[in-house]
Amino acid sequence: EDGKSSADRPLVPGSQKRLPQCIIVGARKCGTRALLEFLSLHPQIKVADMEMHFFDDDENYTKGLAWYQNRMPYALPGQITIEKTPRYFIAEKVPQRIQAMNSSVKLIVILRNPSTRVVSDYAQVYANKIAKNKTVSRFEDVVIDPRTNKVNTQYKAVRISLYYYHLSRWYLYFRRHQIHIVDGDKLITHPLEEIREVEKFLGLPHGISEDRLYFNETRGFYCMKFQQGEHCLGATKGRKHPDIDPDVLQKLHVEQSLNQSERMADFTDIAKFEP
Ligand code: A3P
């Protein structure tokens, strides 16, 4: 894989595969795909379509930065290369490894209401299990530990939503201004406003006109317009969420507050993600 095979030459002369100057590091089920696809509409942004899993997968990481770089899309000088891998957010070794690649890299974390994220995560795991004919459990049964009748913080979907716990690790390695937090709930309702904030963070001029995004009534989400037609995210994005026992949701809410509300306020700009 030297990147020089005839099938893999730059389509545009002068374009190059570069290491990403910006990485969307998570969190899973917060709108990472929508964010990446919307950003790809910007002429000065080039996105890697596939999740790279370079920094979180020891086997990939051992292949080295040249391997990683070779998997990046071709970009012109002046274009910013972005990749997204939601698992980076929770994988312990990742912040340090990214810092070792480029200590001034820009990082984007997209978060949404932590309880909604747990439900979304559950809905995805549920759908995948059904597809594989595996047995599934009710939300209430996986989120609540039957022995204590309390929230099971060992359940992976609950743990990922303890944003403070993960974020504090990132702030050990990166300065405050290097990490931009996108509001995933707002990305659903007002995508362009969130995109404008990202443009500012990346030091780019407005590059996505309003008419590129439109609300698709059938999908219930924003979709994109192209000259060739329209494009919505795939069917695995925007799943119907199950109805959840309100008592269980309330418990989840309280648990998340206990775990992070005061501490999230340390990062004043992200205090809005307190449950
Ligand atoms: P749900 O499927 O639970 O609704 P990720 O890409 O990180 O897996 O996030 C998936 C979530 O992105 C979806 O969760 C959905 O709510 C959200 N989302 C945000 N904007 C969207 C859009 N324009 N189209 C579809 N899903 C969108």
Helix/strand layout:
Elements: E1 16-17, E2 22-26, H1 32-39, E3 45-47, H2 58-62, H3 65-70, E4 74-75, E5 80-84, H4 94-101, E6 106-111, H5 114-131, H6 139-143, E7 144-145, E8 150-151, H7 156-160, H8 163-173, E9 179-183, H9 184-189, H10 191-202, E10 213-216, E11 221-226, E12 229-231, H11 246-264
Bound molecules: adenosine-3'-5'-diphosphate.
Concise synopsis of the structure shown:
Keywords: Disulfide bond, Glycoprotein, Membrane, Transferase, Transmembrane, Transmembrane helix. With 275 residues, this protein is an alpha/beta fold.
Features of the shown structure:
alpha/beta, Rossmann fold, 5-stranded parallel beta sheet, 11 helices, globular, binds adenosine-3'-5'-diphosphate
Walk me through what this model shows.
The protein has a single domain (11-273), classed as Rossmann fold (3-Layer(aba) Sandwich), CATH 3.40.50.300. With 275 residues, the protein is of the alpha/beta class. The longest helix is centred in the last third of the chain and has 19 residues, at 246-264. The termini are far apart. It has a five-stranded parallel beta sheet with strand order 3-5-2-6-9. The protein is globular, with a radius of gyration of 19 Å. Helix content is 37%, strand content 16%. The chain has helices at 32-39, 58-62, 65-70, 94-101, 114-131, 139-143, 156-160, 163-173, 184-189, 191-202, 246-264; strands spanning 16-17, 22-26, 45-47, 74-75, 80-84, 106-111, 144-145, 150-151, 179-183, 213-216, 221-226, 229-231. The model has no long low-confidence stretch (mean pLDDT 91). Bound molecules: adenosine-3'-5'-diphosphate. Residues 28-34, 86, 120, 123, 187-188, 221-222, 233, 237-239 line the site of adenosine-3'-5'-diphosphate (A3P). One of its GO terms (molecular function) is transferase activity. Residues 20-253 form the Sulfotransferase domain. Disulfide bonds join 223-232. 3'-phosphoadenylyl sulfate binds at residues 29-33, 112, 120, 222, 237-241. Keywords: Disulfide bond, Glycoprotein, Membrane, Transferase, Transmembrane, Transmembrane helix.
